[in-house]
Amino acid sequence: MFLIINRLTDRYLHFRWGLHVIVQVKNSMFEGEYAEILNILKDERNFDFYAYNPGMLERRIQNRIIRSGANSPKNYIELLKTDPAEPTHLIENFMINVSRFFRDPLCFEFLAKLLPPASFSAKLKRGDRSFRIWSAGCSHGEEPYSVAILLKEWMQHEKLALNVELFATDYDAIALAKARLGVFPADSIVDMKHGLVERYFRQNANGFFEVAPEIKAMVQFSEYDLLDHNSYVPSDSIFGEFDLVLCRNVLIYFNKEYQEFIFAKLHRALAIQGMLVLGESEIPVAQFGKKFRCECEHCKIYEKEQ
Questions:
Q1: Which residues, in sequence order, are CB contacts of 67 under 8 Å at separation 6+?
Q2: Which among 19, 42, 18 has a CA at the least distance from the CA of 30?
Q3: Which residues are within 8 A (CB) of 231 and not within 5 positions of it... i.e. 6 or more apart?
Q4: Angstrom distance (rounded) from CA 102 to CA 240
Q5: What global pTM score does this model have?
Q6: pLDDT digit string (tens) for 163-195?
Q7: What is 105-304's CATH topology?
Q8: Among the listed residues 111, 106, 108, 109, the one whose alpha carbon sits nearest the alpha carbon of residue 243
Q9: Quick one: average pLDDT of 96-109?
């Protein structure tokens, strides 16, 4: 079964595997072969995708069935059971997260102008030189490394030393391993200014770009499930009171019920006047709308007011 909700509804989805297959969905749940596919991942790999957006899961299961050559859900289930590598391929297909350094440059430019007066000045007046950041759903690390570079540039410009605590988390251990390595293809830096690339990257013999040690040292990566009911922040961070939380293009993968759960966690993790950055198509869920003030409609940057 997929996700149990209060009201009973039926809907039908049509896919094409060379012929039409009709799948009945009740209560927004997968049934039959689709439930079996998800259960294999849950039972054998301990990955629970039942909270993910049903439409996204449907499309990516369909994509993997076609790419694997299985041609039908029934054949694909057999492939999952007999090929040890296939569950990994499907998990990676679910967790695809296209990213690059300074993705959405306007957002980072606005942050660079907004954060110093909004956050640092108030903290410095009371003798607090700490600045706490959480990049939730960091994937391969492009986002937290971009934030680290932004802060490094600002501190050097202002000749100011801050105690930056930058925590970056993801559910995908494989993605985190790549993030810690800090080596990226050239297309990951297409949105960056040439001067930043020269200062904070080293190009290796294979044409890949490695993040400078000083930037790597600013980011603490750890595995964390945003659906964890036992904590509201990553264990490495110990407590919340974050001055900045980035959770971009993460909520879109979840259904409404779990979006509300995650947003409650993000709200609790932020300090008063802390900044929240969402993805371009995301907004605060309804019950939290009045607790945030929109700082930039185009960039989806919000300040926590209560």
A1: none
A2: 42
A3: none
A4: 25
A5: 0.76
A6: 999 999 998 898 999 999 999 999 999 989 999
A7: Rossmann fold (3.40.50)
A8: 111
A9: 85
